[in-house]
Specification:
90 residues; two-stranded antiparallel sheet
Length: 90
């Protein structure tokens, strides 16, 4: 199977971003938000709605989001990673 990653020569730009304590950082694959009968914007809106009802426990949140976003047999692979920021110890 061929790799789908960006070539090393593609480069990237880094930046700093301050997030408030308790902010959620959510990484996901397109399989979580895309469906054959709805556009990607509708999927992102559904994901945002699911994240707004966030329980305190991140494992519970991932389970809740995955259950809400997927059908019994997803058409694509799904990956979801959620992290929550916390106060700096400095």
């Amino acid at each position: 199977m061929a790799s789908r990653s960006a070539p090393a020569s593609a480069g990237y730009e880094s930046f700093d971003l301050e997030l408030a304590e308790g902010s959620l950082i959510t990484l996901f694959t397109d399989g979580l938000i895309e469906t054959h009968d709805a556009d990607i914007d509708a999927g992102i809106d559904r994901l945002l709605d699911a994240l707004r009802q966030a329980p305190a426990d991140l494992d519970d949140l991932c389970s809740q989001v995955t259950a809400r976003m997927t059908t019994s047999k997803p058409a694509d692979d799904i990956a979801l990673l959620i992290a929550r920021t916390r106060a700096s110890s400095s």
